[in-house]
Design brief:
It contains 2 helices and 6 strands; from the N terminus they run H-E-E-H-E-E-E-E. It has 136 residues and is an alpha+beta fold. The protein has a single domain, classed as Hotdog Thioesterase (Thiol Ester Dehydrase, Chain A, Roll). It has a 6-stranded antiparallel β-sheet with strand order 1-2-4-5-6-3. Strand 5 and strand 6 form a beta hairpin. The longest helix is centred in the middle third of the chain and has 19 residues. The radius of gyration is 15 Å and the shape is elongated. The mean pLDDT is 92.
């Protein structure tokens, strides 16, 4: 269900000397009743799942042949819940690559209400590990 509601807004990959894996993705979605808790707000588990899926796309934007191109798995996913996102609200999800090493990576994510400049409702730090023959 989550992939069906997510809309990819943008993908940016702009490597610079200080950050050779400078990648960013932005998604949007509308909070549906199916994703809400009993109080009508986006469920914390849905927040974690959405971050898990979308932060990984930032890594894909910065991957290349032989480097993070064989898949990856979560090591850590730390979500912070700042304010609720009520049913019917449009939410924007921004994801950034913080670091990509040979086997480990770190991403961050921010969910904002209503617009890419809206109030922050949730944040995350997502640690990933590369899998496959390229990481062994």
């Amino acid at each position: 269900m989550i992939p069906k509601i997510l809309s990819l807004e943008s993908v940016t990959f702009e490597p610079i000397k200080q950050n050779p894996h400078n990648a960013r993705t932005v998604f949007s979605f509308e909070v549906t009743q199916e994703l809400c808790n009993m109080t009508g707000n986006l469920h914390g588990g849905a927040v974690a799942l959405i971050f898990d899926m979308t932060t990984s796309t930032a890594l894909m934007a910065a991957s290349s042949e032989g480097f993070w191109d064989t898949g990856h798995v979560s090591r850590t996913l730390n979500c912070t819940y700042l304010r609720p996102a009520p049913v019917g609200t449009k939410v924007f999800v921004e994801n950034y690559v913080v670091h990509m090493g040979k086997r480990l990576a770190q991403t961050t994510g921010v969910m904002r209400l209503g617009s890419p400049e809206g109030k922050v409702c949730y944040t995350c730090e997502h640690g990933k590990a590369a899998v496959g023959s390229a990481s062994l």
